[in-house]
Design a protein that fits this description.
Low-confidence stretches: none
Number of strands: 9
Radius of gyration: 24 Å
Helix content: 40-55%
CATH topology of the largest domain: Rossmann fold
Strand content: 5-15%
Shape: flat
Distance between the termini: 32 Å
Strand order of the largest sheet: 2-3-4-1-5
CATH class of the largest domain: Alpha Beta
Length: 497
């Protein structure tokens, strides 16, 4: 197959390439956010893919996404007046300009924060489902009352009302009328819900109770609830709430296409605080007959680089060259535009902006500044190694067992038979060590050990979070995003760190 023709590269100086390289390298390496506090989203960081409109809609109660997909980012955008106003411009059909927002749970302490410590103080270790529901009702009552301008309600009083269905309905009814009269909607946002518990039984108790409360809130038109959840939390097969299938069906998954990810990168370059980079990028666009952008055109997705894959590819060709290899056969290594997205995908074929930007940042810091481009194919491969290491480190923050499970697999050539993978775990007594460590360190193991405790259960746990998958021939495999940092091998694949 012959390679597709490359675009005509606009005339650029090495100083232009250097300026753009510095701008990419200057993107914050830790692009994570909290819903509230110091790391809440900033106005200039907002890039709004069209497909995310459903996730921000006040009527969508469940939003699902893995770490790095943007759950806390969008929680924080909704929770601040300035950023919510920008989101209202990006998605005018949602009516976000008529929405007030409060937080029901954030995982971090702040004036708006509700933390695990607060939850544990009201829902003890021997709590019942009713106790848990009382707490979640209290978060709604307390926040909605504040949103209506009432005097602050203590948590203790809110819990008392939450446990009394008659008084609770009376209070919520009055609040509903208030927001209706104001022609507004009060939206209560819950983020960082994976931090509610460190054992399976308690997490299920709290999750089921919260989902029951969310289901009951369908009775109100002007008080809405939105949960940002990890997939493994809502997909837990042991959850027994009878209406759960309906909530799962209505859930919206936060996903980023390759076009969305490049749109995000180019938006960052277009709005770079570094003037030489902004000038160089606009010159590059002018040479390709692509219009420049401002924040409003980016928000409204009116800029071609926010949605046009062909033009995005032309820009990437200027930044990194057309192909991942040199010479007449260089095209066989793949296009520089397609390669990062293909190699950053997890087992669900999903790529997070955190991993994508991490790859580009590392690529821009790799080696000397070339004369004819911003980043090189080898820099992109190095970026994959950096992104892989960061992704596994981030996974370890969520799943404290992950590194101990991946370490025994180092050196395996993938794809590999089940027996070889399971034997690697057996030889190192991975299950026994994991069980002892989870108990000693008091963290949530990959599965409920009292009910399951086999190497297959370990694989299934990794499969659920997109770290491993089974091929059609039965062999087990691992996406490059995790494989590289875990030091597994693959013929023709990027070598591990």
């Amino acid at each position: 197959m012959n390679p597709s023709p490359t675009c005509e590269v606009p005339t650029m100086l090495q100083t232009d390439f250097k300026a753009l390289r510095e701008a990419i390298a200057a993107i914050p390496a830790d692009v994570s956010n909290d819903a509230v506090g110091q790391y809440a989203p900033r106005l200039q960081d907002i890039f709004a893919p069209e497909t995310h409109a459903a996730a921000l809609a006040p009527g969508t109660p469940i939003v699902v996404g893995p770490r790095g997909a943007g759950k806390s980012f969008w929680s924080g955008v909704l929770g601040q007046d300035e950023t919510r106003a920008a989101a209202a411009k990006a998605y005018p059909q949602l009516g976000l300009d008529r929405v007030q927002v409060g937080f029901g749970f954030t995982g971090v302490g702040a004036s708006e924060g509700v933390t695990p410590e607060m939850l544990n103080s009201f829902v003890g270790a021997d709590a019942t489902s009713q106790d848990a529901k009382g707490f979640w009702w209290a978060t709604i009552l307390r926040a909605a009352s504040k949103g209506a301008g009432h005097a602050p309600m203590s948590f203790k009083e809110a819990v008392r009302i939450g446990l009394d269905w008659e008084e609770r309905n009376l209070v919520l009814g009055k609040l509903e009328v208030h927001f209706q009269d104001q022609n507004s909607t009060f939206l209560l946002v819950y983020d960082a819900l994976d931090t509610v518990a460190m054992t399976w039984p308690r997490r299920r108790l709290l999750t089921e109770a919260l989902l029951e409360v969310v289901w009951a809130m369908r009775a109100y038109r002007h008080i809405k609830v939105k949960l940002f959840l990890r997939p493994d939390q809502i997909d837990d097969d042991a959850l027994r709430f009878v209406e759960l299938p309906k909530l799962r069906t209505g859930a919206v998954r936060l996903q980023w296409s390759g076009v969305d990810l490049y749109g995000l990168l180019y938006a960052r370059l277009s709005l770079s605080p570094l003037d030489p980079a902004k000038v160089a990028f606009n010159q590059l666009l002018e040479g390709l007959n692509i219009s420049a952008a401002d924040q409003n055109s980016i928000l409204a997705r009116q800029w071609t680089l926010a949605h046009d894959a062909k033009n995005q590819s032309r820009v990437m060709e200027v930044l990194a060259g057309a192909y991942m290899g040199d010479g007449p056969s260089g095209y066989k290594k793949g296009k520089t535009y397609e390669w990062p997205v293909a190699h950053l995908a997890d087992a669900f074929a999903e790529v997070t902006p955190r991993s994508f930007l991490g790859l580009m940042i590392a690529a821009a810091k790799y080696g000397a500044v070339p004369n004819d481009r911003v980043i090189t194919p080898e820099g992109i491969r190095h970026g994959l190694r950096a992104a892989s290491k960061t992704r596994v480190d981030q996974l370890h923050q969520e799943f404290l067992w992950i590194k101990g499970v991946l370490a025994p697999l180092a050196g395996l050539l993938l794809p590999q038979s089940e027996d070889e993978v399971f034997n690697a775990w057996r030889k190192t007594k991975t299950l026994a060590q994991l069980t002892a460590d989870a108990k000693a360190s008091k963290y949530l193991p990959p599965f409920e050990i009292a009910k399951s405790n086999s190497e297959r259960d370990l694989f299934l746990a990794l499969q659920k979070i997109g770290v491993m998958f089974s091929r059609k021939d039965g062999r087990l495999d691992m996406p490059d995003l995790f494989r590289v940092a875990a030091r597994l091998l693959k013929k023709g694949g990027t070598a591990p760190v």
